[in-house]
Automatic annotation (TrEMBL):
Belongs to the peptidase M20 family. NCBIfam families: hydantase, PRK09290.1-5. SUPFAM superfamilies: Bacterial exopeptidase dimerisation domain, Zn-dependent exopeptidases. Keywords: Hydrolase. It comes from Kordiimonas lipolytica. One of its GO terms (molecular function) is hydrolase activity. It comes from the Bacteria. This is Zn-dependent hydrolase. The lineage of its organism: Bacteria, Pseudomonadati, Pseudomonadota, Alphaproteobacteria, Kordiimonadales.
Amino acid sequence: MPNISVQRIEDDLLALAKFGFNEADKGIYRQGFTDIDMEARAWVMKKMDGLGMTTRMDGAGNIIGRYGPADKPAVMVGSHLDSVPAGGIFDGSLGVMAGIECIRVIQENDIKLDYPVEIVGTSEEEGRFGGMLGAQALAGCLTPDWLDSARDAGGVLLKDAMAAHGLNHLDALHAYRDKSDLKAFIELHVEQGPVLEASDKSIGVVEGISGVFKWMVRLIGKADHAGTAPMDMRSDAFLGLADFAHEIQRIIDEEGTDRSRITIGHVELKPGFPHTVPGEVDFTIVGRDLDADVMKGLANACQRVLSAIARKHRLKFEYEQMSWLEPQYCSEKIVDMIDAHAKKRGYSHLRMPSGAGHDVQFLARVTHAGLIFVPSVNGVSHAPDEWTHWVDVERGANLLLDCVIDLATD
């Protein structure tokens, strides 16, 4: 069977990392629709051009290189090219560079394709403007109202950021790919977590993307003097939060699964003075699971527990659901195919969910879609010290190649 060249992938990833590299912290700063992001996209398109691919940028800023027959549904391969601030060199970029390497190997081995292969570098996956713009556009999950109003944390409107690079934000609505236009979508990505490394597995065969709900919670008590207010007469908002934190594991044990996650990620105490009993605490709760009914059970349990804790500590409990994203399963057909090719290669592998969001969760709505994970050293990602060993990159890219050839040939 043909094999990829991991050296070429390494060279490409290191060259791409120069776009947005910060010498001070060694991180990558390539946020969606910044100048450096668009320069990186132009550079990748040039590489595609050099392989004789037909290239274009769609209305959402996705770059697409197509190779093979013109009149058949495409096998789409890729991931995103933007990064978080101070990100690593693999997140997203690996999937695009490995896809380009698959085209090289197909050409070098003179493999006749019955279906075209498209390499995509999606835009704005990391959520600078609050979504996964490129993948949402491809899946037809955008609205004019959202495109008009989306803005980043600094107040920059998406439409203005796109216009600065000659793009009309409403053209993103024309990036939609009909189901008849795509045969499949495959994404290779670093795990961004510790499971594969801890399990001593080379490959993660992703069964689906966990659903996510996000709450903003407020417990309101009474601010008091820390020296004069007796302990049994306080309405201490922080104690309510502390009690809830201790209940998280019990909630998961009773309502969840080993795939459930509940996280308190941000906390603000008010008035926040050392000598004052906290009269209010605002915090986030983010819950995840691969099963929609389990997610609902977790959310309901959080509400019941918080209500009981509020009564215990004489607090008022309020919450607002900021978002609810349903779980998205990958295609059974693609999951089984990845699994089978991993076995043929003799790669140790594990079927697993993804707790993080990926482009595949939107592409799965319009075509058969699958996701391959390779291990992240110490589970680190979204940081300058994100790392995946080159031998694992090689295995993941070879597995991607096998799947692409399988899908693109009769």
